[in-house]
Amino acid sequence: VKASNPLSFSLQAKMSKPVQARRLEGIDKNIWVEFVKLAATYSKVNLGQGFPDFPAPDFLTEAFTRALSGGNHMLHQYTRAFGHPPLVKVLAQFFEKLLGRDLDPMTNVMVTVGAYQALFCCFQALVDEGDEVIIIEPFFDCYEPMVKMAGGIPVFVPLRPNPPKDGKLMSSADWQLDPAELASKFSERTKAIVLNSPNNPLGKVFSRRELGLIAELCVKHDVLCISDEVYEWLVYDGKQHIRIASLQGMWDRTVIIGSAGKTFSATGWKVGWVVGPNRLLQHLRTVHQNSVYHCATIAQEAVAQGFQRELMLYGKPESYFVQLPKELQQKRDWLVQSLDGVGMKPIVPEGTYFLVADISQFKSDVPDVPNSDEPYDYRFAKWMVKNKGLAAIPLSAFYSEAHKNNYTNFIRFCFAKEEATLKAANDILQKWKQEKTS
Ligand code: PMP
């Protein structure tokens, strides 16, 4: 292109400005983009990304069909920006029961595009340039880039594993915060802590004692709590999910985040919510009204009907929130057995869709590359999907850059799958084990 051509000159000049906003620096990589593509290309059995391959319950899909073609054509139009009135009303009724306090559907609840957008609203609305946000490792990976996009500084504190000495399988409860270490992360610079109980990826359900410790520090240092509770109904072995907002001094400083995707096994619907005090939610509404503004009306209507059913059946055996964890516990146990049977030691999760397994005994199959930039578990998971057709996610994806290399012996499996899918995974593992020993 000749510079004497005035048109080409002006085009060249335009291309010289940086296009990328500074807030995106260093956050361009995303585990899901990479591993979802690998699973789509190579996997025979996909236990990677967290979504059920079994159908959503009939009462929910029927509610969607009714909303779609039931004659109320207004359900195809915009609804209230901060949440379709029937949905915020029933969510308020439901959470009144769970939290034991009165809630105003219009100011204490907001509907979001999945829990993802709820998280985004929290960080954008509550975190300022230079604010520190404590994140407990391992963590759902988007917390770190979302804090950074808001100008905040993530401060990491790890759950530390204490293997049981009696030869029993490890449980997610054996991963604990060191109280002194946690306390050392709080300062006047701390704006918020992100809590995720039940936790993705470990499946840890924080105990009342652990939550009490976090709550005490939040109150002492005037820190907010962004409480991601998307797996609130998926708790096993009679364990109880405790809401940190119900602990003393916490309601006024906590935003509870939920997901219809996880609650009703319909992750593609992308309906989520926040519940909290108006003093916090009013600022989340500002982000919402200036970003997505509004979520799909029909999906909100159907989720509202799902919650109305659950409100009626609350605590009864027919309730989906009673049935789903029972089914998932069975699936967890199948996968625990399969993995334990071949020596890929599982860490038995107390909740969620996920379990983390130790790959140490399988390392000889996948050669290490010393001084590589890629953590070993990434290489292992890639090798496994390409060579065995089994997709899982490396655990170090759930750690900060600084701590990734301490946790490269584990991969995460999703067990929210049909029995046939879990059997197919078992077949792959058994065959692999036989090849190793023959
Ligand atoms: N938080 C956690 C801990 C999650 O695991 C997920 C989904 N994997 C989300 C939030 C996002 O939920 P949603 O699909 O409703 O956006």
From TrEMBL:
One of its GO terms (biological process) is kynurenine metabolic process. This is KAT1 transaminase. It catalyses: an S-substituted L-cysteine + H2O = a thiol + pyruvate + NH4(+); L-kynurenine + 2-oxoglutarate = kynurenate + L-glutamate + H2O. Its cofactor is pyridoxal 5'-phosphate. Pfam families: Aminotran_1_2. CDD domains: AAT_like. Belongs to the class-I pyridoxal-phosphate-dependent aminotransferase family. Pathway: Amino-acid degradation; L-kynurenine degradation; kynurenate from L-kynurenine: step 1/2. Homodimer. It comes from Gymnorhina tibicen. One of its GO terms (molecular function) is pyridoxal phosphate binding. SUPFAM superfamilies: PLP-dependent transferases. InterPro entries: Aminotransferase_I/II_large, Kynurenine-oxoglutarate_AT, PyrdxlP-dep_Trfase, PyrdxlP-dep_Trfase_major, PyrdxlP-dep_Trfase_small. GO terms for cellular component: mitochondrion. Residues 44-425 form the Aminotransferase class I/classII large domain. Keywords: Aminotransferase, Lyase, Pyridoxal phosphate, Transferase.
